Amino acid sequence: MNVLGIETSCDETAVAVVSDDGAPAIRANLVQSQLAEHAPYGGIVPEIAARTHLEHLERLIATALDTAGLGYDELDGVAASAGPGLIGGLIVGTMAAKGIAWATKKPFVAVNHLEAHALTARLTNKVAFPYLLLLVSGGHSQLLVCEGVGSYRQLGTTLDDAAGEAFDKSAKLLGLPYPGGPAIAERALRGDPRRFPLPRPLQGRGGCDFSFSGLKTAVRDRVAAFEPGDDADIADLAASIEAAICDHLLDRTARAVRWFRDRHSKGIALVAAGGVAANARLRSRLVGLAADAGLDFVAPPPALCTDNGAMIAWAGLERLRLGLADPLDAPVHPRWPLDPAAWAPKRPR
Ligand code: KG4
Ligand code: ZN
Fold first, then answer.
1. CA dihedral in degrees (79, 82, 86, 88; nearest 10)?
2. Which of 74, 75, 149, 165 has its CA 20 to 30 A from that of 100?
3. For the chain, which residues make up each domain, given as ranges?
4. For 127-302, which CATH superfamily applies?
C-alpha cells in the first residue's frame, strides 16, 4: 500500500510517500520550512502561511512522487492534514489532496494532525496498542492513552500555554530566534540549570494537567531584573528554562504512568511525540521514567517529531487499512480534539 501525505496545518509545507508491504517504509519525505517568510513579523502570519503553502505544494508533490519512484496510478490513497491548525493552510492542503484523489479515483483521508503525531511511533517502531502518549508540540500538550486508530482517551491537557509555546515565548524573551525549542536546547548545553530557580507548577497536585504560563512570567521577570548580558547568562537561563519545562513534563507524565500501569496490564510503552519530543534532555529523562515503571520508551527520530508529511501519510495508511476513507466534501477543523469527551475528562486523582 502506497499513500501520499500532505501537511499544511501550520508553517511547514510537507509532503511524503509512505508504503507498507509487510514493513512500513518512508519512500519520500520533504519539508519546506516557511521560517524566512514569517521572520520579519516575529510570529506566524496565517495568510502568508496559506499563500506560501500554495506556492510550494505542487512542486513538492511532484518531487515526492519522483523520489518515491511512483506515479499517481500507483498510489492507494491521498491523505492530508484536516485540522487542528490554521484554516487557510488546511484548506490549501486538503483541496490539493482532494483534487488528486478525484482525478485518480483514489480514496481521500482527512487526517487529524494530532492523531498523525500519535501514530508516528507505530510507523517507526511498530508500537502495539494500547500505549501511553505524551504529545507535546507548539500548540498542544496532552497525555493520552492510545487505544486504537481513532480511539484516544485524554488524561491531561494544558490549562494555558503548550510546552512548545513555553519554549518559543521564553526564547523570544531571551532574544533567541524562532522556533525557540531548538535555540534554547542548544544554549542549554553550555548552561547551569540550577542558577535561576523557576517555578514548577502543580507539583504534587492531582490530575495530569499542565500549566506553563507562570514560567513565561517568571522568565520575563528574571530578564527584566538583571538584563542578561553575555552568552554565559543566556546559557544559564536557557538551561534553567529547559530544566523547569522538563521537570514539569516529567512530574505530570509520572502520574499518568502510574494511572496507566494500574489499568493497562497489556500496555508496554510510553511514547513521546510532537516537536518538543525532539528535545534531547526530555527524551533522556523519559527513558529513565519509563524504565523505572517497567515500560519501553519510544520516541520517533527528531525529524519525525516535528511536523512532517510522513506522519500524515502513515495516519492515512493506518485509516485506509481499516476502510476509513473520507468523502471529498469532508470539512477542515481549526479545532479537533482527539478525545471527544476531552472537555469533561475523567482525570486520574
Ligand atoms: O509538532 P511541531 O513541529 O508543530 C506543532 O504541531 O506545533 O512542534 C513545534 C514546536 C515548537 O514550539 C518548537 O519550539 C518545538 O516544537 N521544538 C522543540 C525542539 N524542536 C522543536 N522544543 C524543544 N526542544 C527541541 N529540540
Ligand atoms: Zn505538529
1. 80
2. 149
3. 2-119+303-321, 127-302
4. ATPase, nucleotide binding domain (3.30.420.40)
Tell me which of 176, 248, 306, 338 to substitute to probe ligand 1's pocket, judged by most ligand atoms within 8 Å of the beta carbon. 306
Amino acid 220: pLDDT: 95
The pLDDT tens digits for 241-293 are 999 999 999 999 999 999 999 998 887 899 999 999 999 999 999 999 999 99
The C-alpha cell of 250 is what?
516529567
pTM of the model: 0.96
3-state secondary structure of 135: strand
Give the C-alpha separation, 299 to 280, whole Å. Answer: 11
pLDDT digits 0-9 by tens, 203-212: 989 999 999 9
Nearest atom in ligand 1 to 139's CA = 7
Ligand 1 nearest-atom number relative to CA 180:
14
In Å, the largest CA–CA distance within the chain is 63
